[in-house]
Structure formats: structure tokens, C-alpha cells
């Protein structure tokens, strides 16, 4: 492969992207659209790993009036040569390098207790103060303000001072530069999500609310602000009274192409790395997101996929996003699912859709108040996509489906892990006892109940039932479970054998699947006949087992019938 540029795995900083010559898909017209719309505060909500940090870094590089360590002004125009923004007109280019910029990332606040999370946020604020410490040399900053500034630099300021620290810094920067300030806040909801799951949500909400109110609501030094996050948090919890806020979610068409990759961009990407033949595979695995009406690919997954394919690290797609995104909400949905939710999950995995009311103003406290809130959370965080919208009774409804193969993999993996854990927690000795005693009715009831309680992500084929029954019997303490071994003139599905042979026992299980519930009995008989006809017990007899039980199991969806070759005990 003739590589044109290195592929940027995990590169989040725009200057590094350009300086080191990485392959960059040009998103600089985001600058033009922000200037065109002139919103004071814009909140972009997008799923994790969709290029939000890189976009914020690009905005900082373009707008910032950057002071170098030697006191001179940086010329950042070099980072935009040949980019689309340079062709957009002087009315936009004239803003380059004209504003002091505060850049604050909240993504590091993932600590288990409030004190540690607060300290992490305070340290991020302190770093931004340190980056702008050059203003302390100016006479435009009063001695009193310099003392407050030093208290933040030394981490000696109290929580009230840190809650107002961004507003205070913007005031100092305006005094120094004689120009209003741009405030960029990245991953604003990370500390809130972390706080919710660790039990200090109210404390963190209080601090973030104070931080944002002072910086974004009553700040006369603010030119404009851009905030990015995964979830739109309701105004009442964070943005109280912030009437200058424009929220751009995945439901909006505006700005849709600036986070993630479009089909045109992906085609160019694949062609540049000589793997355009992988277009269909890339589309089925990583496409499927819909922002407004714009089709979008997951950028993190595509970058990793193209890198691995181009470097011949693999021939196949991988679930890259599942290794980075938090899947805890998917697990919560599955663990707490009632029968209706289980059926809806199965419909989704089978490629179907569900229709739910959309609720954009949601807090982490609201997530578990209803199943509809959980579905909303999954939608806004990238685990579902919209395929249709409707409006009735003053409410927007979304028809949603799973975006692509990668997300299906996340659901299936989560379901599989949950199912195994559920099975391990249960005492299934009754199933083994029923098979030992020839109690087919009890065995049928136990297996059917387990099928009813679980979530299936297969088309009810024999392999699914085979794996399911093997899972139910895996942890019994009496028998060794063997699967699909050669025996006689065919292959039996499953056997249970005691370690001891002379006084031991073996149990042969053969599975059938029917498309009609009325054919369960004939399916069992067919399985039993197959055991006899193909002499599945030959090898077991040769081993020395004399007590051999044979069962035919037939399945229809989540119904199971068990029959054997001996009279059933009453």
C-alpha cells in the first residue's frame, strides 16, 4: 500500500494533526457556520469519540490571540493554509487570531468521590490560568485581581472562587487584550455522568451550575462560547436561566457534517488508501448514524478500521467503539428489562424498529424513571438511530433502530455476558435431576422458563439452542459436558457423562427446531430416532458406560419440549 499520510489514531489536537502531517478530513467550515449564526452559547451533543475534542482544538487554534513564551504573538494561519475556511471569504478570515480563548476540558473528572473529582476540575482550571499567566505582567490587572489569580494558580482558592474562576479569568483577559473572550468547554457532561454513577450527583451539579452561570450567563466579557458533550442536560439542572443557549443535537440538520464522516469523505478516505473495495463492509459496520438528515459514519471506528486494513493488521472489521464507549446504560437496560423490553431488544437486534417519544431535556437522575428515558439515552449516546419521525398529541415520536453491525455486537456481547452471569447465579440442579429421573415435563418447564427469562439475539436456529443448553448445564457438579463429538455414524449434539464409568451414567441430548408449535412432539421423536439410527451411543458403550439415557429436545421460539426413550415418571 502506498500511504499518502499517517492515519491519526487518537490524535485530538488540531496543531499536532497539521504539524505532524496526519491525514485530516477538513471540518474547518464549522468556523464559518459559528460566525454566521452568531449564537452566544452553542451546545453540541454528539456520541463519544465523534471528533468533538478535535473540533474544539481547531476552534481554539483559529480564533486564539496566542501569546508565545517570548511575549510575541503566534501566527496560526499556517495551520489553515489550503483548508476550506480560507476560501470562505474575508468576513470570516478576519476573525483569525483576534480573541483571547479559554479552553477547558472536563473529561478527566472521573474519580470515585466528589473531593477527588472536584480537585481534578480545579486542576484543569488552574492549568488554563497558568497558560495565561503572562497577563500578570500587565498594569491593566489590579493587585487585588493578581492575588485572586495567584490563589487559583497555587490551588489555594476556595470552592466558591473556583466556581467563578472561568468568569474571572475572562474578565482579566479582556482587560489585557481589550477584546472579549471565547470560552470553549469540552465534554461538559463527563463529570455529571461520573458523579451520578458514583453517588455524588447533586454536589457536582451544584458546582458545574455555578461554574457555567458565572461564565456563560452573567459574563460581560464573553464573545461567544462553544460547549460539547454527549447528552443534553436539562436547563433546570445545569443551564438555569441561560436564555442565550442554542442546543444542537443529533436531531438537528445544522452543523450535521462537522462531527463524524460523510459518505463522500469516507469514499475519498478509502480511495486514498487503496481499499475502496472495503466500502460495503465499512458501511455495514460503521455507518448508519443520522444527524438531522445527514448520513454519518463513526469517525473513531473508521480511522481504526482503515489503519488496520491498510496496514494488513486484519482482514476483518472489529468493534473499535465498544472498547471506548461506556456500555453501562445498555447493561442497565438489559438487566432491568421486563418482558416488553426484552421483546423490543430482540426486535431491534433482528433489524426491526421501535417507536418512542423523544425527550431531549433529560438528566442522569431521569434515566431510570422510565424505560422510555433509557431508550432516549441510548439514542442520544449513539446506540440507536432514528429512521422516521412523527408528531402527535404535542409530542415528537422517533422510530429507532440499531445503526450498524458494530453496535449490534455491543448489544449481543452485553446480552451474552448478562445471560451467563444470570445462569451462574441460579441453582439449575433441578434440570440435571429431571434428566436423571426421566422427568421430561420438569425438564421442559425449566428450559422453557430460562428461555422466557433471557434475551435472544439469534434467529432461533439450532446453534442458538445448542449453546443455550450447554450454558445451562456447564456448571453442574455431577457431569462432564461434551458437545458435537463424533460418535457412531454421525455427531450427537450434547452428552453428559460422569467421571466414574463402572457405576456412572451418560446422557445423550439431541436437538431439533420446528417452525410450528404443534410439531414439537414430532420433532422430539425425530431426534430420538436419529440417536438410534446413527448409533450415537456406540462410543459411550465402548467406554464402558451401561446406564445411558437418551433425550430428544425440540424448540419453537422460546418453547421447549423434552422427550425420552423410557416411560416418564409420574
Domain count: 4
The amount of helix comes to: 40-55%
Query: What about the largest sheet?
Result: 5 strands, parallel
Total strand segments: 17
For the record, give the distance between the C-alpha atoms at the N and C termini, rounded to a whole number: 71 Å
Provide the residue-averaged pLDDT.
89
Number of helices: 22
Question: How would you sum up this structure, described in words?
Answer:
The structure is a single chain. By secondary structure, the protein is of the alpha/beta class. The protein folds into 4 domains: 25-251, Rossmann fold (3-Layer(aba) Sandwich); 260-323, no CATH class; 328-409, no CATH class; 426-564, Trna Endonuclease, Chain: A, domain 1 (3-Layer(aba) Sandwich), CATH 3.40.1350. 42% of the residues lie in helices and 15% in strands. The protein has helices at 14-19, 29-37, 52-63, 90-93, 114-131, 143-153, 159-163, 165-177, 190-198, 201-217, 263-272, 279-286, 299-310, 328-335, 339-349, 371-380, 405-425, 429-437, 440-453, 462-473, 520-533, 538-543, and strands at 41-45, 101-105, 181-186, 222-229, 245-248, 289-291, 294-296, 354-357, 385-392, 395-401, 480-483, 486-487, 490-491, 494-497, 506-513, 548-556, 559-564. The strands form 5 sheets. A 5-stranded parallel β-sheet has the order 2-3-4-1-5, with helices on both faces. A 5-stranded mixed β-sheet has the order 11-14-15-16-17. It has a 3-stranded antiparallel β-sheet with strand order 8-10-9. Helix 9 runs antiparallel to helix 10 (201-217), helix 14 crosses helix 17 and helix 18 (429-437) runs antiparallel to helix 19. The chain is elongated and about 100 Å long. The model has no long low-confidence stretch (mean pLDDT 89).
